[in-house]
């Protein structure tokens, strides 16, 4: 009898929180009508939408009228970047961002450049930490309309110095957009940002719901055709049952976040130590201290990342390899390239509320043999 599958890719999508299922099913009964209409069913839907917004805003510590729901975290990131640039187009057309932003931010930056704007990527060190002096110089350059910084790397888990980066932005009046996809619902959100985005399925909410928060006083203009919904920030009718489930699960995940972090961090420490000790020619990447509590990434020399992914999948382990959000391309992860670290045989392991110590031990027991087999198939044996 084969062992049960072990899911270790929460950084892509966490398993649904129990509250997600409960809230989604309950909202399907009352949340199917258009909340913009005036009849009874619509008024009930409107009450659900308003309550979801209030709950999500309270969890994040923001005003309800600053928060909008979007069709995804990617849509929220696109809106954040393009809307922030559009709102300050009279100031300039320069977007400053770290070299390790999520592909959603980089795709929005590409669109900006195609339309005549410019970008200023800021480097990181080998641990994936932002070069703060370079950042400070970049945001002080003429014509900077917006700065974008990921709160914590989705690939290697390094937590960025958001507070310091925000201070540099504030000194010159440049608004800061923070991609909070990997921190919202898991660790406290850093202060100092003007625009924040998140994605519900990262904290165990349903897929297809993003959060866009624009602070009062921030110059931001919707880059999409005019629409009266969601304060004009994102077009179309929201998926109300999913929105209700997202807000409810965010509150539940945030309430348990500190305890979960305390439980998962030692398991990640164990993975970092054992992989380095038990697998020859491996590099554990990312900051060993200033990092997310649930995520670890390592690279194995002489091993193809996709082959390693499939081999682990055959053993029952679901993990990511390389840049999970740019896997449709043949080029290595832009994050690992920017860090200057090994990108061969890259594996990202990310834990969640259902991950057990036994799951981690089984992964650590089987990984060395899987890597050795793949190296032997490639003719690499004398290690």
Distinctive features:
383 residues, alpha/beta, Aspartate Aminotransferase, domain 1, Aspartate Aminotransferase, domain 2, 2 domains, seven-stranded mixed sheet, three-stranded antiparallel sheet, 10 helices, 12 strands, PyrdxlP-dep_Trfase_small, Aminotransferase class V-fold PLP-dependent enzyme, metal-binding, transferase
CATH topology of the largest domain: Aspartate Aminotransferase, domain 2
The level-1 CATH class of the largest domain: Alpha Beta
- Poorly predicted residue ranges: 323-330
The topology string of helices and strands comes to: EHHEHEHEHEHEEEHEEHEHEH
Task: Estimate the helix proportion, in percent.
Answer: 40-55%
Q: How many distinct folded domains?
A: 2
At the fourth CATH level, what is the homologous superfamily of the largest domain?
Answer: Type I PLP-dependent aspartate aminotransferase-like (Major domain)
Radius of gyration, Cα only, in angstroms? Answer: 21 Å
The assigned CATH architecture of the largest domain is 3-Layer(aba) Sandwich
* Percentage of residues in DSSP E strands: 5-15%
Count every beta strand, where a strand is a DSSP E run of 2 or more residues.
12
